[in-house]
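Students often ask why we bother encoding 3D structure as a string. The short answer is that it lets us treat folding as translation between two languages. Here is a chain of 152 residues written in the first language.
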Amino acid sequence: MWKTTVLFGICMAVLLALLKWLEYSFIVKDLRMEAYLGIVGGFFTLLGIWIGWKLTHNKKSETTGSENSIQYPGNSGEYDPQNEFNLSPREHEVLVLIAQGLSYQEIADQLFVSLSTIKTHTANIFSKLDVQRRTQAVMVAQKRGLLPPVKV
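And here it is in the second language, the structure alphabet:
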């Protein structure tokens, strides 16, 4: 934080010196009033943009990752969105529901999306897991730890 404050102070000192030089030039060299006002207006516009950007710029949030994780029932592990298959959270959710034995229409109804959306998610899952069928996808996901183990 102190680096930003020091940088801001230096910039303000340089810009103040520039304004004083412009004021001197205006008095001594008799610049036109419009040129002087344009330069001062441009300066304050750029200063406002810089300050606004600094104040509103989103810094990288330091989260623990719990906001983007899905807890498995009966499993202490968490779903990692950056897993080796690069499944999106929605694709993982669809995969979990497939593993529960739900049909595509039941999954669509539960997630409040269309049937074609579920089929698209399923096609993406099959492609990412390199499988051809729902049962293969569930088996691969269980072997890789993407799903909780089946309780028999």
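Translate back mentally: The chain is about 65% helix and 0% strand. Keep this in mind for the problem set.
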